[in-house]
Amino acid sequence: MKYLKERGYQIMEKEKVNVVGVIGAGRIGRLHINNMRNMPNVRLKTVSDPQADHMKDWFSESGVENLTKDYKNIIDDPEINVVFICAPTSLHVQIITEAAKAGKHIFCEKPICFSDENTCKAHKVVKQAGVKFQLGFNRRFDRNFAKTKELVKNKAIGDLHILKIQSRDPEPPSLEYVSHSGGIFMDMSIHDFDMARFISGSEVEEVYVVGGALINPEFKQYEDIDTALITLKFENGLVGVIDNSRQAVYGYDQQLEAFGSKGSAKVNNEKESSVEVLLKEGVKSSNPLHFFLERYNDAFIEEVEQFFEAINNDEEVPCGFVDGIMAQRIASAAKESLLTGLPIKVEKYQ
Question: Is 47:26 a contact under the CB 8 Å cutoff?
């Protein structure tokens, strides 16, 4: 091969095929499966889910070769080189550890874990194994937020002074979901904490939270809330504010403003249509897209494609373990601030 290349012959290298196992076939697992079906050089070999017995109709049209109830069938399969972890958060560290020791590259949905100690232990295992690990902070891959990041990095709006993030879900989750979600900061705001780090290019130094259970007072029994204002103090002097609500009756409200010394960059809501109807009675326009599946599907595709590129080209993943650790630490500080009524310092990554 080297002899031929030295003499000017072009050698067509065999295309790399990533053989994938997906652990967890709930809403987010199925989204990734559906997107990967259309990606070249991706082979969807096995999906595991405890409810596999009730998924036969879906499986027959999924494009996946095998369906199992036991995720260890994926871990133990030497042909599978990539694992997607879409299982409940409580299982993440266990599966990450087993997959890494088996030499498999890992894509994991957020958060990694509710425990900082266990998250850091899993990080050590992944580093020792030398496998790729990417976390599912999909909003980084949205074209609008990525463009804003570029504008901030290139100082097109000068020095960044204020970062405002507005993130509101269309409807609140069930109490059963809230009971094991880790709370609003780990479950919902964690995306905004990652966006704050991503857009600003700076670590968050301190967090202060005010909020309440204004939509469903029963959230209080889990020391959780559904409405929050979160103030962030960054290491580089920037200040930020995050506005979270579990219920925006008009749709999925996802907006951001980066305000700097030379101007401002704003990301507005994606709507069903950009058409405005102007009548004597008033102006009408479409509501924002209903939820994250519609709003961010292109971003979900982009994050997975970049993950496979990192594997195939042996490059750094665009969103790694440290990003997950720091977002979790901001979330933990936010919860402590809510419970104590005090601003809380965010633990640095060592």
Answer: no
